[in-house]
Amino acid sequence: MFCLQAVLLVLVYPVGFCHAETPNNSVAMASLLQKGLAELVELEVSLATGTPKPLKLAPSVATVITAQDIEDMGAATLDEALQTVPGLHVTPSNFNRLNSSYSIRGILTKMNQQVLVLIDGQPVRYFSQGVRPDAFKMSIANIARIEVVRGPGSALYGADAFAGTINVITKNSADIDGTKTSVRYGSFDTQEAVLQHGNTYDGWDVALNLDYMKSAGDKSRIIDSDLQTVLDSSMITSASLAPGSLRTQFNILDTQMKIAKDNWSFRIWNWHQKDAGEGAGVAQALDPDGTQNENFLTTDLTYNNKHVATDLDATVRVSYTDNKVDAYLVLFPAGAVLPIGSDGNISFATPAGVTAFPDGVIGAPSVREKTTGIDHSLVYSGWSQQVLRIGVGYAQSTLDPSEKKNFGPGVLDGTQAVQNGMLTDVTNTPNIYVKDLRQYKWYGLLQDEWTLAKAWVLTAGVRYDHYSDVGGTTNPRVALVWEATSELTAKLLYGRAFRPPAPMELYYVNNPASLGNLKVKPETIDTYELAFNYQPRPALRIGFNIFTYDIEGLIEFVPDAGQSTSTARNAKSQKGQGFELEADWLATDTIRLRGNMAYQRSENKKTHEVVPDAPGLRFYANAHWKFMPQWSLDGQYWRVMDRHRAVGDTRPAIEDYSLANLTLRRKNIANHWDMALAVRNLFNNNVREPSQPAIPGDFPMESRGYWAELKYVF
Question: pLDDT digit string (tens) for 644-686?
């Protein structure tokens, strides 16, 4: 209650002072919100159809977060910005490494491959896992806007656009417009330094971004016990490092260059992470020594001619992605004693012997992935009242793994009493965790935007995707948009989407945690939505939608009886329904109020049990006050409620929580400087996100933290 009162104070307190401004200041501050007002009325989104369209007319339930929105709220990372989207909850994966999972409308699995994330239209995912890089974090410094579509998008974007699609559009030369540099320092030894340049040289638009950020992580995120604690009690050992803190440090260099001239554009983006922390440990046993180094490189060359022929727009994109991951993982700590099967892996059901690991159970897997693709699209607008889009594409992916370890096939057979920390190289042997792989895929799509009558637009599309290892799938969508009045728009939407099993879900073997299964089939979802956009006044917009969906064959890693492993299976089918309500209001010349609430109830179709961990009810409120021409104060509040345990999990219920943030900003100091101060988790609430039973107390999130930022514009 105290948190809610504090947020209400942030919302109401400025109102009492806005009338105290002098007339000149009132006019000046009113002009500061004009851009926000224009964006509120005419905001466009391209993610829904592939071409820009006003948000209220887009054939989808979509949210656009602009660079100005991000600056106002004081978000430091992509995850913080996404937390403001209705129906989207960011939570740490309880599978490993605390990777950020984007739960949309109650769809949440351990690996979270059901949300497609794009950077400038290119997927950000590992081929082997079908998910973003481990411990992926992205600074907001180079983000021009974020487009989020909730609901299926496979008819346009193919695989993984299942629960939703997120496209991060980075800044071009006009967005940067000169040279800018900034530094940020905050709690937990969090640091960031940014250098950007954007300009035009002889007709060439050039944009450069260099962003370095690091953090030691919040050492107060203590867990009292882990999986090794359980093993200690059964094996009469004391190897567990719990109580101990989660390992959440990161060290990231993010570089990007964009070059464009006439119909051509070239982009190269490199995301490099060094010594990333292992969260709660890949085996749910604390690992203070494990680290992961990752390099994610993607580049593309695009040709777009909007007048290749009369009423014909043609685009060709050639892309290349190169990912390299090197990990050093201590699955179980020094001093662990474990039952070992004849295959060298941990086995409680059929042990061949017991082995002591004085240096710990250690694995050092590495992988190199490469994907080359080409996409071609044509947009024809020569027919009256119709816009036709045709697209085709092809991609080839390869996986080249290597591995060293002191356990498993080729290393142990259960007869060894003691195994030291010396690692055996099993690369290019049958004992490696996955073999070399090569996959081919191609697609074709057709989409028609047809104005049936004045104020009625029907968008219909279908896409066929074919994979060399799992076959083909067809995914249609239909959207009817009715602009009933200039104030009210209604949308009736249907879409089907799919997610093919990732190579790890098919081919992983000899792994102490995750095993593949060649019988796994693609996941599918059918979603129906009814959405309304109501704008009774230019300064007020209200959005409301209801949805229902039906999922077949969700893939999960299911624990194997008596083993330490889990095997990929089409574990469940799921149905869900709910609603999302949002409002955006320029309350006065100086105050903007925004908020949303989302409700969902999802259940297992066979057992009718509620889907665990995802919030059933979620509230968000935001107040932004420009209390002087160059000063602003922003307050945010979240309430997360109604999360359920999995069936058979006897732990106490997951506690609801509240979270509040504040950001104070001063711009244009001496014409060159900007300054910001922020506090996160203002009231230092004990925020917890769900863990597996091996870590019974759930994952503690960051305690109260502060940061300060200084920016210089040349």
Answer: 999 999 999 999 999 999 999 999 999 899 999 999 999 999 9
DSSP-derived secondary structure letter, 188? G
The residue behind tokens 């960011």 is 90
Residue 42's pLDDT is what?
63
- Dihedral sign, CA of 700, 701, 702, 704? negative
**Residue 31 backbone class (left: φ over 0; alpha: ψ -120 to 50; beta: rest):** alpha
DSSP state of 247: B
Q: What is the pLDDT of residues 594-603, one digit of tens each?
A: 999 999 999 9
Taking the CA atoms of residue 400, residue 406, residue 412 and residue 415 in that order, the dihedral angle to the nearest 10 degrees is -170
Q: Locate all alpha helices (DSSP H) within 63-213, ordered by sequence.
A: 67-73, 78-82, 154-157, 173-176
Closest by CA position to 139, among listed 266, 248, 273: 273
3-state secondary structure of 224: coil
Written in H, E and C, the secondary structure of 562-615 is CECCEEEEEEEEEEEEEEEEEEEEECCCCEEEEEEEEEEEEEECCCCCECCCCC
Alpha helical stretches, state H, 205-362? 227-235
| pLDDT score for 85 | 97
Give the residue ranges of DSSP H helices in 449-531: 503-507
pLDDT tens for 114-135 read 999 999 999 999 999 999 999 8
Can you identify the CATH homologous superfamily of domain 2-235+248-713? TonB-dependent receptor, beta-barrel domain (2.40.170.20)
Strand ranges, E, within 216-311: 222-223, 244-245, 250-261, 264-276, 291-309
Beta carbons of 213 and 255 less than 8 angstroms apart: no
Low-confidence ranges of the chain (pLDDT < 70): 1-42
Q: Please state the domain extents for the chain.
A: 2-235+248-713
Q: Cis (ω within 30 of 0) for the bond into 629? A: no
Q: Return the pLDDT at 271.
A: 98
Burial of 270 by CB count in 10 Å (0-12 exposed, 13-18 middle, 19+ buried)? middle
Q: Between the CA of residue 572 and those of 508, 555, 611, what are the distances in Å?
A: 21, 7, 10
| H or E stretch at 7 | helix 2-12
Q: Give the separation between CA 288 and CA 244, rounded to whole angstroms.
A: 9
Encoded tokens for 493:
């939407």
Torsion of CA 485, 487, 490, 496, to 10 degrees: 130
3-state helix, strand, coil in the chain (%, to 5): 10, 55, 35
Residues 6+ away with beta carbon under 8 Å from 256? 142, 170, 207, 208, 209, 267, 268, 269, 270
CA angle, 319 then 320 then 323, to 5°: 145
Find where tokens 């574990």 sit: 571
**Residue 630 and residue 15: Cα distance in Å, rounded?**
18
